[in-house]
Amino acid sequence: MRRPILSLALFVSLASPAAADEVVVFAAASLKTALDRIATDFQTSTGHSVVISYAGSNTLAQQIIAGAPADIFVSANQKWMDEVETAGLVTDGTRADLLGNTLVLIAHGKDAAPVEIGQGFDLAGLLGPDKLAMAMVSSVPAGQYGKAALESLGLWATVEPSVAQSDNVRAALALVSTGEAPYGIVYATDAVADDNVTVVGTFPADSHPAITYPGALLTTAADEADRAFFQALSSDAADAIFAAQGFAILN
Fold this sequence. Notes:
Shape: elongated
Low-confidence stretches: 1-18
CATH superfamily of the largest domain: Periplasmic binding protein-like II
CATH topology of the largest domain: D-Maltodextrin-Binding Protein, domain 2
Oligomer: single chain
Mean pLDDT: 92
């Protein structure tokens, strides 16, 4: 009588759907709009769940090195991915440059006049007594790129006293969106995500280091779902979503 019982148990086991796994992603804040959509599509098609923590790349890298249980890391610059890799936490052969971006000057509202950004641009005069919103210039990639651009153009010394620094680039975007700061420096992809701001100028590409987003599977990744989502970030469907948001596709 045992054989039928065992056969039934085996049948039930095989007929049951595979257990859903959870993918934990640490990603630069500027990726939120596009990556949320990619994660939703992945969850719908696979049944796996994707949990994404967004912050400045510096904060995320430090958390990973301190032992935070992340499966995938996507940074907004090479430096913070280098830190994680040096700590021995990147799975060999998985690191890749996924995306590129552009640095822009934004203004609150939809009626701001365009400006020409270059040597001699009077940004301090444009600001007057008001603030320029930026991500933290010492550690957050968007802030570091922004400071480098301003220094390259000879503008940093005159605007530094007016800079209002935020924990990440989306926080800087929010300051401009709400009107707390009339102008800010963010990525072009951030500006696309907010209807309350206008891009008034684009920083020359040669005024700052190239903006790249390296991604990697971390050594704490434990299941096929982690690998599948990491691969999905370079799929044609993901590329289309990223491109629609304004990212340059590098993979």
